[in-house]
Amino acid sequence: xxxxxxxxxxxxxxxxxxxxxxxxxxxxxxxxxxxxxxxxxxxxxxxxxxxxxxxxxxxxxxxxxxxxxxxxxxxxxxxxxxxxxxxxx
Amino acid sequence: xxxxxxxxxxxxxxxxxxxxxxxxxxxxxxxxxxxxxxxxxxxxxxxxxxxxxxxxxxxxxxxxxxxxxxxxxxxxxxxxxxxxxxxxxxxxxxxxxxxxxxxxxxxxxxxxxxxxxxxxxxxxxxxxxxxxxxxxxxxxxxxxxxxxxxxxxxxxxxxxxxxxxxxxxxxxxxxxxxxxxxxxxxxxxxxxxxxxxxxxxxxxxxxxxxxxxxxxxxxxxxxxxxxxxxxxxxxxxxxxxxxxxxxxxxxxxxxxxxxxxxxxxxxxxxxxxxxxxxxxxxxxxxxxxxxxxxxxxxxxxxxxxxxxxxxxxxxxxxxxxxxxxxxxxxxxxxxxxxxxxxxxxxxxxxxxxxxxxxxxxxxxxxxxxxxxxxxxxxxxxxxxxxxxxxxxxxxxxxxxxxxxxxxxxxxxxxxxxxxxxxxxxxxxxxxxxxxxxxxxxxxxxxxxxxxxxxxxxxxxxxxx
Lengths: 89, 464
Known about the structure:
The complex is a heterodimer of chains A (89) and B (464).
Chain A: E1 9-12, E2 17-20, H1 21-26, H2 36-40, H3 46-53, H4 56-63, H5 69-88
Chain B: E1 5-6, E2 16-18, H1 42-45, H2 51-57, E3 64-66, H3 69-75, E4 83-85, H4 87-93, E5 98-103, H5 114-126, E6 131-136, H6 140-151, E7 155-161, H7 162-167, H8 169-177, E8 181-185, H9 191-199, H10 207-220, E9 224-226, H11 233-239, H12 241-252, E10 260-264, H13 269-283, E11 289-295, E12 306-309, E13 320-323, H14 346-353, E14 360-362, H15 364-377, H16 384-403, E15 408-413, H17 421-428, H18 439-446, E16 458-459, E17 462-463
Parallel strand pairs in B: 5-15, 6-7, 6-9, 7-8, 10-11, 10-15, 11-14
Antiparallel strand pairs in B: 1-4, 2-3, 4-5, 12-13, 16-17
């Protein structure tokens, strides 16, 4: 059952506040947080949990470092803003 | 009667910030644009920051920057902040060291953050900006910027990570009280937020998503700019008012020199604020040990090599040279949210290379022990972040006792822990564990940045 640990609470080092395990397994577009392995290592069998509920591809995708896609996105937004400004002038 | 704390008169507040870039023995390496692979220029940052702040960001010539009168008048609401002598802690430790701490928890939002939020709001206003967008995790930075924009009559939009928005209504209410529009992220106000909500209407959000929303808002809205509360050069420069005040106050205490300066270092603004004016003295020959402190579980400064990495976990901010564990680094469950930044400010990285500052790391259990000793002697309950620097103070005070030396120790007391008593509860109930990052974990993390360009390592202007 994927909800088995959902009620457990931990302090999120990224947010600076308490969060339930459900947050850690869903915050990354419904996939696990990149930090889930380290944060929960001493509380539950996190590797077993991930292996039991996600495919290898899903795990790799969720735990992998972010790609440049988001950066590409922001640069596109900046270019768009420049064009908007030029149009406004 | 002995003095417990020293206030400066209002007319003694520093009138200039210290720009350490003018004194770096080696210049900072350029920030690389991920798209072009070329160093970015001011125009690349112009859509998200006003040019007057960008000019401060890249200013390597002017050692002193005048603080505008309008900014000083806002800072005077709570500044100059007091410098305390920690007599009770000294007595408990039986140390000959004289311990001083700068109390930055006295600002209206309760942290050092408004030291930069106020000038950032001011410079945006004089540049013609009407509105500022930002993101916040648990709400500290959002609160500080809301306060600052309120003082200058600017609109403020804060994208607060949904789960914190729901859990911390008081932080949200602080922002609302100062007139900011604080919305949960994901929101319906941006494409990024709407997309996330379409996928999951109950999405709890994330810091990366909140950054995406704030930046998208900035670049697509009229007269709007983005604001960041740490890491950047101008942010650290605005914080130097802390150290400049502390210098004057130490003189009033009768101290002719300081031996040790320390503060916790997450993104670096708290540490840089107190330390940089003393780094100047060290550059000029003073014998001062300057120590940024971090958790052993997130050893950004003490174990990581100097590499290029994204400046944020979401990979949105252009690559900057900094000590980093790689943006894929997974911090262990430390109870110090403000120390979560996986890459320290580039200025701090350069000072480490130059040997001007000496980072140190402590385990969270010894830090909580230090925090409890502090609370039971000095009274104030420190924030988990602050406790790391307190542990450093205690270690140095004990060393002074062993050596029989009357050292002068200065600490930046960055905030109270009243909003963080859950961490203390975990400590008292034995739920906390120490987790020094294993070498294997470090190697795994560093693989994520193997292909990134490597900056030159310069010490005193020469390659090393």
